[in-house]
Write a structure and sequence with these properties.
Helix content: 40-55%
Distance between the termini: 11 Å
Number of helices: 1
Radius of gyration: 10 Å
Order of helices and strands: H
Number of strands: 0
Structural class: mainly alpha
Shape: flat
Largest sheet: none
């Protein structure tokens, strides 16, 4: 997992958070 992939994922979650709760990130553990 690259830093850019994490940034992109978190940005996508922020765009969706009004519709869906942000999930945990088990794949980063």
């Amino acid at each position: 997992m690259t830093a850019q992939a994490v940034v992109d994922y978190l940005a996508a979650q922020q765009r969706l958070e009004s519709q869906l709760p942000a999930p945990d990130l088990p794949w980063l553990m």
